[in-house]
Amino acid sequence: MGLYSNVNVLYNLSWFFPIDSGFFYLVQLHFCEVNRWMKNVNQRVFDIFINNETTEVKADVIAWSNGYAVPVYRDYVVLVPKVNNGEKQELWLELHPNTKTKSQ
């Protein structure tokens, strides 16, 4: 998710976290647009997925923060069902470019 929108649509950002199953988790994501060229709404738009579930569609940090270099956060609560006597699982977090918005 860099400066070149034609390249951005080709890549996702993904993270995997080992966690215990059978609990609710608060996933708090912090965002801050620090690229000085990104100052307008719809310049960088993405979707957020947690454990392969759509969590946020058309996420836009500039729209959320009303400006450049203003930090914001979003909270999501995720239930991770208990499996096999509570063995560890992976919590997936993914950011995908949203191509439907035709962001700049």
From TrEMBL:
Signal peptide: none annotated. Residues 11-82 form the Malectin-like domain. It is found in: Membrane. The lineage of its organism: Eukaryota, Viridiplantae, Streptophyta, Embryophyta, Tracheophyta. Keywords: ATP-binding, Glycoprotein, Kinase, Nucleotide-binding, Serine/threonine-protein kinase, Transferase. GO terms for molecular function: transmembrane receptor protein tyrosine kinase activity. This is Malectin-like domain-containing protein. It is a single-pass type I membrane protein. The keyword Disulfide bond does not apply. Its main location: membrane.
